[in-house]
Write a structure and sequence with these properties.
It holds the Pfam family CRS1_YhbY. This is Ribosome assembly RNA-binding protein YhbY. By secondary structure, this protein is an alpha+beta fold. The chain has one domain: 2-Layer Sandwich (Translation Initiation Factor IF3), CATH 3.30.110. It is built from 3 helices and 4 strands. The chain has a 4-stranded mixed beta sheet, with helices on both faces. The longest helix is centred in the middle third of the chain and has 14 residues.
């Protein structure tokens, strides 16, 4: 689990990132989960935007993404979900303790 301090640190790192995935009408599916998981392995921290036409609630989408990818939820802000997952091979982000 991430501490408050670590979440603040990750939020500041994520601030200038652009969302690289979008959740639309179809909601979250297995395939999207796999793609996001692969992207997390490379980047560790990423944003997913939730489109206006998405039928699911943004918190529901965030929970689905977390359970599919095994990532940590950093924050849900507006229609954007910020996820973090420590990379096994490309570890770059050093979290404050």
């Amino acid at each position: 689990m991430l501490t408050g301090k670590q979440k603040r640190f990750l939020r500041s790192k994520a601030h200038h990132l652009n969302p690289i995935f979008q959740v639309g009408k179809g909601g979250v599916n297995e395939n999207m989960g796999k793609q996001i998981e692969e992207a997390l392995e490379v980047r560790e921290l990423l944003k997913v935007s939730i489109l206006q036409n998405c039928d699911e609630d943004k918190d529901e989408v965030a929970r689905s993404l977390v359970s599919l990818t095994g990532a940590e939820l950093v924050q849900v802000i507006g229609h954007t979900v910020v996820l973090y997952k420590e990379s096994k091979e490309n570890k770059e982000i050093v979290l404050p303790s």
